[in-house]
Amino acid sequence: MKPKYKISKLMKLNYLTFRTTALIWLFGTTLVSAQQLTDQSGISLNDLSSFKDPGKSWTLASGVTASLNKENELSLVKGTGILVNYPGKKNQGTDLFTNDQHGHIILELDYLMAKGSNSGIYLQGNYEIQLMDSWGSKNPLASHNGGIYERWDDSKPEGQKGFGGYAPRQNASKAPGLWQHLKIAFQAPQFDASGRKTANARILTAELNGVVIHDNVELFGPTRGASDQEKAVGPLRIQGDHGAVAFKNIKITKLPEDQLNGGKKGGGDADPIYIDAPANTMIRSFVDFAPRVRAVHAISVGSADQLHYSYDLDNGLLLQAWHGEFLDATPMWDGRGNGTSRARGAVTSFSKTLVPAIAQLATAQTVWPVDTTGSGYRPKGYIMDNQDRPEFKYHTYGTLVTDAIKNLDNGAGLNRVITIDKPTENLYLLLANGSDIQEIEKGMYLVDGQSFYLKFNDIANKPIIRENNGRKEMIVLLQGKLSYSILF
């Protein structure tokens, strides 16, 4: 749905008088239901028996990481649970087909791209959703990550052979080596008793990393590289001849009947109230950044780089960041509102709890405090640098902290510089907490199930990784100035 209202600057906002209107989606005739041959909660990746004649480029692993510096390279940990395609000069890749076939389905899976890699998911073996390392792309195309690939006609002149592709609404891609989540509601083509096609296939919805990138897209024919003629049912096919890629948590279930023809959508009737960031833009609101956790004195900072973040002023805590479009203010300004705004891109959360960013600990193993009691915490607002970007300031434990968070030049993530104005004994910064934290190379860490990277250069004190209630915490002794990057 396109927004009825778009906002570029906070000072121009005056939406309290707006009211909702209804939007009714109309679709064509009822379609004939295809026979459903697949209805399973998950494809087992304990072996390759779910697939037909897997080629030598396909294997299984229990862990996979990628290099941010080397093209098409993955590191594997022996085991099962992850499906890996790793083609090479001596081991040409081949496409992988499931034994089972499907009609209308909901497909969910997690995938991980190598740097510069390219793959794809073919629904019924014929309709490709592109998988690609599109990290940092500003203007996504049909050939980029999440795009519905072009159809093809060799009889057309050069430059016109490809046609009918659909670019994702925005680039919701993550960095190579990070797990990405794809969810597709697919309606199969329909045929009458004589075999005549009566309705085209549709991508009812496609979500990449929690962002809707396609909504009710009609597929007028197979995309380039289709494996067969259109049918009511067909196998799931994974492209294997282009680049290194890994998959896990592959789940296929029947599409509920009430979702056919673009039916059940969910959500409310309100026209969305969107805030864009054509220049550096700051919005104060509540921010829900983790399940049942709300920051009530938060600020979201947007930029023309399509890279944005939210910051908690009560704790000096960097809450989350995202690539793509800026904010949805509908919950805040529609009707009476509830004070919250929502990120419109693929969100990466940096914390699961609302705690102080900085604490004074008796030892490196002392439990992190749950609030700022006893710290003398006093927020001092922010100042703007010469590029109109905020640097946050607050007093805590007798020192003045300056927290400067800036976009990296290539849009890959954020650089954060924490400075204290005078030395304070045993002062620590909480860098991350999550299900796991692993150092994959010197100064480079993967955090929370491979959700984001932390990168350190010339750090005086090595970060400490410790346990806390079954989860991992990364802290570092803070002395003078600390600089690090967050890549996602």
Beta-strand percent range: over 45%
In total, how many beta strands? 37
Number of domains: 2
Shape: globular
On the 0 to 100 scale, the average pLDDT is 89
Major sheet characteristics: 8 strands, antiparallel
The name CATH uses for the topology of the largest domain is Jelly Rolls
User: Termini, distance in Å?
Assistant: 27 Å
CATH class of the largest domain: Mainly Beta
Give the count of helical stretches.
1
- Architecture per CATH nomenclature, i.e. the level-2 architecture of the largest domain: Sandwich
Low-confidence stretches: 1-38
Widest beta sheet: strand line-up: 27-28-29-30-37-34-33-32
Residues in helix, %: under 10%
CATH level-4 homologous superfamily of the largest domain? Exo-inulinase, domain 1
SS class: mainly beta
Subunit organisation of the chains:
single chain
Rg measurement, Å: 24 Å
Structure description:
This protein has one helix and 37 strands. It is mainly beta and 488 residues long. It has two domains: 24-262, Exo-inulinase, domain 1 (Jelly Rolls, Sandwich); 273-487. An eight-stranded antiparallel sheet has the order 27-28-29-30-37-34-33-32, with no helix packed on it. Strands 3-4-17-6-11-14-15 form a seven-stranded antiparallel sheet, with no helix packed on it. Strand 3 and strand 4 form a beta hairpin. The chain is globular, with a radius of gyration of 24 Å. 41% of the residues are buried.
